[in-house]
Amino acid sequence: MKQKPYPLAIVGCGNVFSRHQSAIENLKNLFQIVSLCDIDPEKSSKVDYQNYEKMLFFVKDQVNLIVIATPNYLHYSQAKLAIESGYDVLIEKPVALSSLETVSLINLAQKHHRKALAVLQVRYNPLVKGLKRIVEEGVLGKIRSVSLVQRWQRQTNFFKSWRGDFHLSGGLLFEFSIHYLDLLQWLFGLPKVLSASGFNLKHKKLPYNDTIFSSFRFPSGAVGNFEITVAAEPANLECSIHVLGEKGAFKISGPNLNKFEYCQLLHNSKKIDYLLNQLNKFSFPASDKPSLFHENVYRDIYFKKGISISESLPSVRLIEDVYRHLKITLLPQYFEPPPTVPGY
Asked: What pLDDT is attached to residue 291?
């Protein structure tokens, strides 16, 4: 007997909504959007509710999963309300703007026996998965250093909305870089920040840094650094990860980790040659990114392999650590002792 598509509701029909909509349309045999909610009905012709609480009340018998694709500062409160109302949730990045809120959601989901899942779609990038395999199989030997470079462009008018407010967006790292910082800890372990420097190179009136440099040390002893900016011109230039190991070096780049640059090794083998030949096939046009990996997110959810929000906690802690070094005081909860969660 053919199984019916999994019904869900989405709150938030802004920029990121199109990625979810496209992914679900491509998986229409697996998922069905039952209801949409947005305070601005002009965002989509199919908006059913402008009041989030009303939607949660009326779709109770129709859906189990609420997808939260609203501005950053709403994620925690909306996820909390959905879980308490008896729903599973899928939360866009960032899950929350502090580790305290993230842990609160983890505990709340456990208490109510609900699933709280995170959209960490960049983990599905085949080049990233290839790098993870190379690291785990010891192809590069003991890792010596890791560098992340993100050189993107944003025009001044991009920050006229909530994105220009540190309280609402979480600043440069939460809004633009949390996916790539997640990769650092996912691939190499949660690092300890050694130093950080922030600048406003282009957006002089922005109340938070448009450029941050940081250095850190991984649990293995490897060192690392990142350069993250939205002050590049004339467009998004690069998002790359460069790894140096005792047996060789590896680099993926492109505007959003979409290009395999090289893997140079002291010694090759037939197995390694095969893997590298596969990686050469995995490069993809940068324009394909927006909805490409959201399909993987939803497919894994359907087959009960979705990524728990507990896996997003290390990247939140990493951002908090960087902000502490920058002496940012706009979000006081960043300076509370980090909560303890099993496994972290």
From this structure: 56
